[in-house]
Each structure stands twice: as structure tokens, then as C-alpha cells.
Design a protein that fits this description.
Bound molecules: 2-acetamido-2-deoxy-beta-D-glucopyranose
Number of helices: 2
Shape: elongated
Strand content: 35-45%
Low-confidence stretches: 9-13, 15-38
CATH class of the largest domain: Mainly Beta
Structural class: mainly beta
Length: 465
């Protein structure tokens, strides 16, 4: 809005009203008349702290003609205010940032003069001697919880005044888990619970920096000073995880779902297969049933229970996870028992895990598996992948596993045949037992080669070569 002036020179707005600014000037004038003889000297006297004896105080305006004052720090040399005791110009011991002088001018006029003492940054911040370098934080500590408060001092400030700092916290994953707040003391605050397992069980090393402020008023280009304090956060593992059946199936996946690089390991309980001979009570478990506390350090003791699939109550499970069977008569051949097994921490029944063990009743096993025949074969001379023929025959060589437990053919249908690893570069065994050879890879051409085959009875884990 463009301001106009009226006939008396006052500012008026577009409606011809005298504006507020003009009223303010009137009020100030009244105040000056009322306070009369004693008044603040117009601003602008300053001296840098520790200025040596004899230094002139820098004033933008004169005090008055022939001033006089009583002071143990300054004197009047006829033209300027001069420092007489530099030791008193020390902001570390002053509780104010200025010195006042009562100045007597002519005509019995007294003025109160203020001389600003500009701070020089003589000292860096110092963290309390007693600050711990190791802080224990529970996994249960919640966001916004203050986990520690560090105190710092700065000798540029009178001890009766609170120094102010800019605190910065740096370290591994710091922004995500922790922050620092405060200007006179540094409160370390949790942003996110410290998950012991996710943080790979490592202690976090952090650096807390304190940067000092201008102790106003201060010299221009005030050089800030920094101190660092290094401390470690030890994450105290708590009972956060249930037991897990071993060996767990683990995979990494993107927890945030943001396709970022932050993936977490997630693990599922192992499941178990086992067999029991029709006529015995010995349960054959290729992988024994065992659960372990997910909180590795705590490693709470585990108890096992069969929750389901044991309607006839023939199975029981021990404190070591071992399944036992007490009744052979009720088992039917080829029957499968799906046992639901619970593992629970003995010290906390809210921490539990569930799995399934499939126990199959199999044919009795009195004979080991063995290769029926065909220990000799020949290869027609071609350049390609060929099937091996049985010696003295026109039929392809087939590796079959004989087992007298399976009459009348005595061939074990549950056997799995595999090549031993060193032959795999040039020979292949098909799932039904035919042997293929890659001629271009076969080492001694034309001569004799041996192929070793292993056979395993999948039901009993018996092996033969
Ligand atoms: C005195 O103060 C004026 C204005 O603040 C400044 O420009 C000048 O550099 C100062 N002189 C000294 C000697 O400090
Ligand atoms: C400055 O003056 C004070 C008081 O007059 C005196 O005690 C002090 O020793 C002097 N300092 C120097 C460096 O001369
Ligand atoms: C200012 O006072 C502090 C605190 O007594 C002292 O440590 C420091 O040496 C003094 N500075 C000077 C320049 O004398
Ligand atoms: C500052 O110290 C002086 C004496 O050194 C004392 O008289 C005055 O009350 C103190 N002022 C404050 C604000 O503490
Ligand atoms: C953290 O725990 C360790 C050992 O458990 C102990 O020595 C240390 O004093 C603890 N730190 C704090 C700040 O309580
Ligand atoms: C404090 O640490 C910062 C970086 O973290 C570094 O730039 C600075 O030099 C350190 N200061 C001291 C006094 O060690
Ligand atoms: C994840 O990616 C960000 C930026 O893409 C990178 O700063 C950070 O170091 C990465 N973290 C890990 C654990 O690779
Ligand atoms: C248990 O048997 C099922 C099929 O019968 C199979 O899919 C699974 O991989 C087996 N598990 C183990 C641990 O052998
Ligand atoms: C053994 O079997 C009987 C009956 O078949 C059953 O009542 C009993 O609970 C079983 N004992 C154990 C220890 O499993
Ligand atoms: C065993 O049971 C499976 C499926 O339950 C069946 O396919 C198989 O023929 C049975 N074997 C015998 C020998 O009864
Ligand atoms: C046979 O071996 C050669 C040389 O290693 C290879 O390039 C070729 O793919 C193999 N043939 C077959 C059918 O595996």
C-alpha cells in the first residue's frame, strides 16, 4: 500500500487515517522524557574478551562530552574507553555477556552504558568423565525410549550457565534405530527396537559429536569446536523367538516389500519322515526330531508333546525328541502316521513350535538290497550319447536292485540308484536304471571303464555299491 502524508507530515493510509507507525513514535518520545537523566547509551560498544590492557573499547557513537565513571576494568583516556584489567574480560567466568558502566556526563546527566564482551571460542566441548562406553539395551526397549543421556561441559561458559551444543550421532544403521535429542545434554533415543537376530548379534559402535555454539555475543567467524565420544551399544537378547525344529528351512525375503536391498532371513520348522518295520518297534528317522530355542544365547530347554495323529496312543516322545513305539500289534503294513509334534520352551509355554512327523510302516527288512546282474556292458562305437548294452546281449544294460524282502520278483521298488560323483562327467544313469555314456567325454577310448553305482533303499536307508 502506498503511504501518503497529511499536512502535518504524518503518514496516512488511503482513507486519510493517520497510521499506527506514527503513534508508536509518540509513545517512545514520551518514555524518553519521563526517564530523564539515566538512559542506556545508544547501542554499539563492544570489546573482544581477553583484549590486553590498553585496548580501546569500540563504540560507534561518543558517550557524551567529558564523561567520567568508576570502573576496575576500564578507564577514560580523554578520547576513548580503555581496558585496564584484561583478566576480568573473561567470558568463562562472567555471568553476563556485557559490562555496565554508570557514566556521569555534563549537566548532572547520568547514563548507563553497556559494553558487550565478545566471546572467543577458547575451549572445545568435553563429555563427562563418567560417561559409559558400553550401554546395554534390551531387545524389549521400545521406540521413543531414552536409552542414555550424555552430559557435556564447555569451559567457554560460566559453570552457572548451561552450555549449548549441536549433538550429532553417527554409526552403523544409526538413523534407522537411534536418534539424539537435546542441546544442553544428549539424549540417545530409540527409533526402532534393536532386534538381536536381525542385527546379526553384533554390538553397535556409535560416535556422539558435540559441536559448540556461539556464546552470544561472539566474535565474527566464530570457529566452532567439536568433541567426539565413541560408545558401544550391547543388545541384550531377550526371549523373543519360539523354538524351531532343526534343521530349519531358511530363505531371505524382502520384509518391507519395497524391492529394496533390505532382506531378512525367515526360517520355517523342519518336517520329518520316518519308517518303522512292520514287525519291530525301532523307528528309523533319517533326521532326528530336535527343536532349538530361536534365541540362540538364551537356548532355553525344550519339552516335546505329541498333539495329534497318535489316536491309538502307540507313540511317545522323550525330552530329547526321540520317538518311541510301545505296541507293535496295532500297526498295519503301509500305514502312515502323521504325528503333530509340539516343542515348547520349558521356561515359557507361550513360546512353542509345531511340526509333522510322517511315520510309515514298511515291509520287514531282512535282506539288504543288492544289484541283480549286469555288471558288464558294451558301447557300440559311435560319437554320441549312447546307451550301454549288456554284455553278450542285444538289450540295454539296466541297473536293477534286488532285494529278497520283495518276493516273488525280489526287486526292490523303493530303491534309488545313483552314480558316484566322479563318473558323472561322462556317464548318466536314468531314473529307471539305464546307463548312458557321452562318448566325447569318455576318457580311455576303446578300453575298459568302470562305473560305480550306489543303491539306497529309501525306506530303510540301507545302501549298497
Ligand atoms: C568497531 O565496530 C565497527 C562496527 O561494529 C566495526 O566495523 C569495526 O571493525 C570495529 N573496530 C574494531 C577495532 O573492532
Ligand atoms: C593489566 O592490569 C591489571 C590491573 O591493573 C594488572 O593486574 C595486570 O597485571 C595487567 N596485565 C598485564 C598483562 O599487564
Ligand atoms: C578464563 O577463565 C577460565 C576459567 O577460570 C580460565 O581457565 C582461563 O584460563 C581464563 N582465560 C584467560 C585467557 O585467562
Ligand atoms: C553475576 O555476578 C555478580 C557478582 O559476580 C552478582 O552480583 C550478580 O548477581 C550475578 N548475576 C547473575 C544474573 O547471576
Ligand atoms: C553393561 O553390561 C556389562 C556387563 O554385562 C557391564 O559391565 C556394564 O557396566 C553395563 N553397562 C551399563 C551402562 O550398565
Ligand atoms: C569428530 O568426528 C568427525 C566425523 O565423525 C570428524 O570430522 C572430526 O574431526 C572429529 N573430531 C575430533 C575432535 O576428533
Ligand atoms: C542398500 O541400498 C542403499 C542405497 O541404494 C545403500 O545406501 C545401502 O548401503 C544398501 N544397504 C546394504 C545393506 O547393502
Ligand atoms: C518326506 O517325504 C515326503 C514325501 O513322502 C517328501 O516330499 C519330503 O521331502 C520328505 N522329507 C524329508 C525331510 O525327507
Ligand atoms: C502303550 O500302549 C498302551 C496301549 O496300547 C497305551 O495305553 C499306553 O499309553 C502306551 N504307553 C506309552 C508310554 O506310550
Ligand atoms: C502303499 O500305499 C501307497 C499309497 O498310500 C500305495 O500307492 C502303494 O501301492 C501301497 N503299497 C503297498 C505295497 O501296498
Ligand atoms: C557331451 O560332452 C560334451 C563335452 O563336454 C558336451 O559339450 C556335450 O553337451 C555332452 N553331451 C550331452 C548329450 O550331454
Amino acid at each position: 500500500m502506498k503511504k501518503e502524508k497529511d499536512a502535518r507530515g504524518r503518514l496516512i493510509d488511503k482513507y486519510g487515517q493517520v497510521t499506527t507507525r506514527q503513534y508508536l513514535v509518540f509513545v517512545l518520545t514520551l518514555f524518553l522524557i519521563k526517564t530523564g537523566g539515566a538512559a542506556w547509551y545508544p547501542a554499539g560498544c563492544e570489546i573482544v574478551e581477553h583484549s590486553p590492557n590498553g585496548t580501546r573499547v569500540n563504540c560507534t557513537d561518543p558517550v557524551c562530552k567529558n564523561p567520567s565513571f568508576e570502573s576496575s576494568i576500564f578507564r577514560w583516556d580523554g578520547h576513548h574507553i580503555i581496558v585496564t584489567d584484561e583478566k576480568r574480560l573473561n567470558r568463562s567466568t562472567m555471568n553476563m555477556s556485557y559490562v555496565t558502566l554508570q557514566v556521569n556526563c555534563e549537566e548532572h546527566l547520568t547514563k548507563i552504558m553497556k559494553i558487550d564482551v565478545l566471546d572467543v571460542n577458547d575451549f572445545p566441548p568435553i563429555f563427562d568423565k563418567g560417561s559409559p562406553s558400553l550401554i546395554n539395551v534390551s531387545e524389549f526397549a521400545l521406540p521413543e525410549q531414552t536409552i542414555w543421556t550424555f552430559n557435556a561441559a564447555d569451559a567457554d561458559w560460566n559453570p552457572d550457565l548451561s552450555p549449548r551444543f549441536k549433538f550429532i550421532l553417527k554409526g552403523f544403521l544409526t538413523e534407522k534405530y537411534l536418534k539424539v535429542e537435546g542441546s544442553t545434554e544428549a539424549s540417545i533415543i530409540l527409533n526402532k527396537p534393536l532386534d538381536y537376530e536381525h542385527l546379526k548379534k553384533e554390538d553397535l559402535t556409535l560416535i556422539l559429536s558435540a559441536e559448540d555454539y556461539c556464546n552470544f555475543p561472539c566474535v565474527t567467524n566464530y570457529p566452532v569446536k567439536t568433541s567426539n565420544f565413541t560408545f558401544t551399544i550391547h543388545i541384550k537378547e531377550e526371549d523373543t523367538l519360539p523354538p524351531i525344529f532343526q534343521p530349519p528351512y531358511c530363505m531371505t525375503f524382502d520384509v518391507d516389500g519395497d524391492n529394496g536391498n533390505e532382506s531378512q532371513l525367515a526360517c520355517a520348522n523342519a518336517m520329518y519322515n520316518g519308517t518303522v518295520m512292520h514287525d519291530t518297534t525301532t523307528i528309523n528317522m533319517p533326521t532326528p526330531i530336535r527343536a532349538k530355542d530361536g534365541d540362540e544365547q538364551l537356548n532355553a530347554p525344550i519339552a516335546y508333546r505329541i498333539l495329534g495323529g497318535n489316536d491309538e496312543k502307540i507313540f511317545s516322545i522323550g525330552d530329547d525328541g526321540k520317538l518311541t513305539l510301545n505296541d507293535t500289534a496295532k500297526k498295519k503294513y503301509n500305514q502312515t502316521y502323521n504325528l503333530e509334534i509340539l516343542a515348547v520352551q520349558k521356561n515359557n509355554n507361550f513360546r512353542s513350535a509345531l511340526t509333522t512327523a510322517k511315520i510309515r510302516v514298511i515291509q520287514q527288512n531282512n535282506y539288504p538290497p543288492k544289484f541283480c546282474k549286469g555288471r558288464c556292458g558294451y558301447i557300440p562305437s559311435t560319437e554320441y550319447m549312447v546307451v550301454v548294452f549288456e554284455c553278450h546281449s542285444l538289450s540295454p544294460l539296466r541297473v536293477l536292485v534286488c532285494d529278497n524282502d520283495y518276493p516273488p520278483q525280489n526287486i526292490n521298488p523303493n530303491a534309488r540308484v545313483k552314480l558316484r560323483s566322479q563318473d558323472e562327467s561322462w556317464a548318466t544313469l536314468t531314473p529307471d536304471g539305464y546307463l548312458l555314456v557321452n562318448m566325447s567325454n569318455m576318457p580311455p577310448r576303446g578300453g575298459l571303464s568302470n562305473v560305480e553305482v550306489t543303491a539306497m533303499d529309501l525306506e530303510t536307508n540301507e545302501a549298497t555299491i
